[in-house]
Design goal:
Elements lengths: L1 E8 L3 H12 L4 E4 L14 H5 L3 E2 L4 E2 L2 E5 L3 E6 L38 H15 L15 H13 L2 E3 L57 H7 L3 E3 L2 E8 L4 E7 L13 E12 L2 H11 L21 E6 L2 E4 L2 E4 L13 E4 L11 E5 L4 H8 L2 H21 L6 H9 L3 H4 L2 E7 L6 E5 L2 E5 L6 H17 L3 E4 L8 E3 L29 E3 L14 H20 L1
Parallel strand pairs: 1-2, 1-11, 2-8, 6-21, 11-22
Antiparallel strand pairs: 3-4, 5-6, 7-15, 9-10, 10-11, 12-17, 12-20, 13-14, 15-16, 16-17, 18-19
């Protein structure tokens, strides 16, 4: 039975930071990740491989995408070495300075934050450095301002909203050199996979996993550094339970080979590892689920376990068929969402905490790979119509013995103009919804009770602003069709083990230490007492970096 100074469960933004910081401090660290490693070049693109890229271990599926479905909400999270960094859109925005409510009058919405922006600033800076953030280089060749970036900047100006190129964990160019797409990243092969990496090729595949290694994902940054410092990284290890004795933890997990169809629960090996400290970083769904299933191991845990759930205000909208005035006439406005990284820019609606009114939010442009354009434009009905027209024209040319060769034009007609997708743009909204969800166990499964009605005013405001944005671009607007069914989807679940000033107010303190269970810490999005508002990855990592300082000091005492 192995023994370590610390065991970290999960390799997302909290777990990876913790593993690196503790290993760097000379502590023996074991990180347990249920998913497998995904080196650059291994992310699937075709239908056959993609069908197996979902997480359902009871059915022999060990892919990245783990989809949770609850009564009013669906959530998409990631399973794999590097956690959500494998499939997120690279944005590392800080939580706005004023969006840390510390007034008890705001407690009606359950959002008292026992930590301030100033306390996180040095940790924000540290994470930004390690993750190698760069803004999208929107000026000059060979990169250029993408059409969607320019459109978002124009729309923000017309709406009177602040706009920015957010920090992205993407390598667009080598340090001190002109950014160039697709060139080798200097020293890029120095990662735990040992594979070369290349600067961003602007193909919009961030959310499917970057096969070129352009994304500075956690496996290529924090985890590679943790391994160099001696951390033990174990994949295919799903933690099921843990127990605490007087001075240590015993963590039980299933070890799966993850390398064939024969894998499954009957082929998993049951293992145990011991540690002086246990750090849970399995995410805002995984960590509360693990704690709820193991309440006997933490009998004095706070009654707030499972509370303060939030979807971080995630909301999806679409601009369709944008038009603009050109030469006195209307012409299609090309937005080209597939060109560039998935997200390039962000606009911000002020919050009442900024002196405005209502609950604030961000709207960001979105993108997707080019094959999605083909799927939309060349659906079976449209393609068959174009192909039939092409065959008839070729048949007539053959019968009439016409000397005119217009095959190029005719083939162009088969492909079509593609204006539906070229003039459309997905919009991503996120902000301060009301964190009133509660997670619990039902028949042994994680369930969520979340009353979205409390956030109706927030979602209406986001929806209305997206509609106005679409109008400024001359487009038609459509919101996520699931929203009409009072059903939302989030890729940023938060809460479930919130921090608070005491045990009655939260599961952990501002350092992620669990009240009533010495040696147990949490380092993931579950400790948020409310929504981050911006993309939460950076704030999760910064809180973990701050918590690591506390744990390292504890080892020294």
């Amino acid at each position: 039975m192995d023994f370590f100074d610390a065991v970290v469960v999960g390799s997302g933004f909290g777990g990876s930071v913790m593993a690196f910081r503790l290993a760097e401090a000379g502590k023996s660290v074991c990180l347990l990740e249920r998913g497998k490693a995904f080196p650059p070049g291994s992310f699937p693109r075709g239908p056959h491989a993609t069908a197996a890229n979902f997480w359902a271990p009871d059915h022999g599926l060990y892919g990245m995408f783990d989809v949770w479905s609850f009564s009013d909400l669906d959530a998409v999270v990631c399973s794999g070495l590097g956690g959500g960094s494998l499939i997120y859109a690279n944005v590392l925005l800080r939580k706005p300075e004023n969006w840390f409510p510390q007034d008890d009058s705001a407690g009606a919405d359950g959002e008292y934050w026992p930590i301030t922006y100033d306390q996180l600033v040095p940790h924000y800076k540290q994470v930004e450095t390690v993750m190698g953030v760069q803004a999208y280089p929107s000026h000059g060749e060979p990169y250029r301002s993408t059409p969607k970036t320019a459109a978002m900047r124009e729309a923000a100006h017309l709406l009177g909203l602040d706009w920015e190129l957010p920090p992205l964990a993407v390598t667009f160019g080598n340090p001190g050199q002109q950014p160039v797409p697709g060139v080798p990243i200097l020293g890029g092969e120095q990662n735990l996979h040992g594979v070369p990496r290349y600067t961003c090729r602007l193909v919009g595949e961030c959310d499917l996993g970057c096969n070129f290694g352009s994304k500075n994902t956690l496996d290529l940054t924090y985890l590679s550094a943790a391994k160099r410092h001696g951390a033990v990284l174990r994949t295919g290890c799903e933690v099921r339970s843990f127990e605490r004795t007087a001075d240590e933890f015993a963590i039980s997990y299933l070890k799966r080979p993850l390398d064939g169809d024969e894998d499954g629960p009957d082929h998993a090996e049951r293992c145990v590892v011991r540690a002086r400290r246990l750090i849970l970083a399995a995410g805002a769904l995984g960590t509360p689920y693990l704690l709820l299933r193991n309440r006997s191991a933490v009998p004095r845990i706070s009654p707030t376990l499972g509370t303060h759930f939030s979807g971080n205000g995630d909301f999806l909208g679409f601009v369709f068929q944008a038009w603009e005035k050109r030469g006195g006439a209307e012409a299609p406005r090309l937005l080209d969402p597939s060109f560039g990284p998935v997200i390039t820019s962000a606009m911000r609606m002020p919050d009442r905490l900024d002196g405005g009114s209502g609950r604030g939010f961000f709207i960001e442009d979105a993108g997707y790979p080019d094959f999605v354009n083909w799927l939309v434009e060349q659906n079976a009905l449209t393609m068959s119509k174009h192909v039939l027209r092409f065959l008839l024209r070729r048949g007539w040319s053959r019968l009439s013995h016409s000397p005119r060769s217009e095959v190029g034009r005719q083939l162009s007609g088969v492909v079509g103009k593609g204006l539906l997708t070229a003039t459309s743009l997905p919009l991503l909204g996120m902000g301060r919804d009301v964190p009133n969800g509660r997670m619990r166990l039902r028949d042994g499964y994680l369930d969520l009770d979340w009353d979205t009605a409390a956030s109706d005013a927030y979602f209406d405001r986001v929806n209305r602003t997206m509609r106005e944005l679409s109008s400024t671009l001359g487009g038609r607007y459509a919101s996520d069709p699931l929203s009409y069914l009072n059903r939302l989807i989030t890729v940023h679940p938060l809460g479930g083990a919130p921090m608070g000033r005491n045990r009655e107010e939260g599961v952990v303190n501002s350092y992620g230490e669990v009240y009533g269970c010495p040696g147990l810490s949490i380092a993931d999005g579950s400790i948020m007492p409310g929504p981050v508002g911006s993309n939460p990855s950076l704030t999760i990592a910064a809180l973990a970096d701050r918590s690591a300082d506390r744990i390292i000091d504890g080892f020294r005492r």
